[in-house]
Amino acid sequence: MSSKYGLLVLNSKNVQKLKQLLTSAAAALSSKLYVRLNPDEPRTDELVSKIYLTSASSCPKLDVRLVVSEIRGNPENYVLIGEEKLLENAEKLAAAKKYKKVVLGGTFDRLHNGHKVLLNKAAELASDVIVVGVTDKDMIIKKSLFEMIEPVEFRIKKVVDFVEDISGTAKCLAEPIIDPFGPSTRIKDLEAIVVSRETIKGADAVNKKRNEQGMSQLDVIIVELVEGSDEILKETKISSSSRRREDLGHLLRPARAVPRETGAPYIIGLAGGIASGKSHIGKYLRETHNFDVIDCDKLAHTCYERGSSLNRKIGEHFGGDVVVDGVVDRRKLGTIVFSDKVKLRELSELVWPEVKEKAMEIVKKSTAKVVVIEAAALIEAGWHKTLAETWTVFVPADEAVRRVVARDNLTEDQAKDRMSSQISNKERLDNSNVALCSLWAYEETHAQVDRAVEELMKRIL
């Protein structure tokens, strides 16, 4: 049985066995590994990066934390990794911190070892306060798969927890920022700013603005990013974008506990906006994984058959002249709803229950292990609340526009107008259990789906 927390003390001798020690930690621990340097092993930027880079591959599931000051609590309560013990009074021998207050910024999504290198540097330098700006809103929308970025409140909590856990007495003041400057040009007594080599220009812009405001210039501390690779996103550093891509096809939030009779199929919803690739994935699930897939867009057309209950309800709601001889006059109905979003919503609320009723009738007759209800407006209709899982397919908005223009021979403005009636990718993903992105080659999309199916079958068998 693995223990939750561990302590690895490095000195000038055992640091040569870093990979071996971290591999041992991966086998012995289930949560966090604290790393402490004894005074005979100097703290250098190269060593800090090496510790986090090696841990990314040797113990990727552990939350590794290189402490700057004392270990919280009694070190004897931690599982010791290796034979080296923490020297007494080691904290007193540590170098004095250079600044009182430092600042840094970032998105800090899915807090990873690259972030930890930056935050470690700030904790190493600041004795009193570490100010962190956490980007949000317009500052994140250009990032790859930004729709999957964790809520800013969650990211702030993770940053504060990490920094105050490793920094000793220094406090972490973190806040959301919606511009490139945030607290860096508001707090006068800051002394230094920590940046990566890729964001030096941002530090220069901060100092320029501080100078214009009559504030002191900040020392610029440059930290090299931890190396990594992502062939799909074409990135060479450990990044949150890669972490988000790796989460595609995995369960992002637990499935709902929906009652299911013995032998009845497991039902999942498949949602997605215009040109998201939803239909392609539905077809792939049917042909490759033998799922029954109910196309609700096609099913909706059958609800408009002559004399149907839906037609009667439409006539009652929008006026008798919209329905002639039991058939909806689509042109007349269109003139009413397509220029008025409120009316369009009213029509949808008439259609959705009818479609769902027909879909559930099909489900009852299915002999498949899994039935997929494929519906563009599944989340808008609230169906996801009654399903065990919802899988959402998405592409960035600009890619969806490009696809609609090419597929439907529309102008860009026409495509954007058509998409404006939909909820956003972010709203869909916030209500989904699994995210799938069809932005890249079919092989990559299929790999995500295969991963999702593999995990699904383990959950339901």
Automatic annotation (TrEMBL):
Keywords: ATP-binding, Nucleotide-binding. It comes from the Eukaryota. One of its GO terms (biological process) is coenzyme A biosynthetic process. InterPro entries: Cyt_trans-like, Depp_CoAkinase, P-loop_NTPase, Rossmann-like_a/b/a_fold. GO terms for molecular function: ATP binding; dephospho-CoA kinase activity. The keyword Protease does not apply. Pfam families: CoaE, CTP_transf_like. Residues 103-244 form the Cytidyltransferase-like domain. The keyword Nucleotide-binding applies. HAMAP family: Dephospho_CoA_kinase. This is Cytidyltransferase-like domain-containing protein. It comes from Caenorhabditis elegans. The lineage of its organism: Eukaryota, Metazoa, Ecdysozoa, Nematoda, Chromadorea.
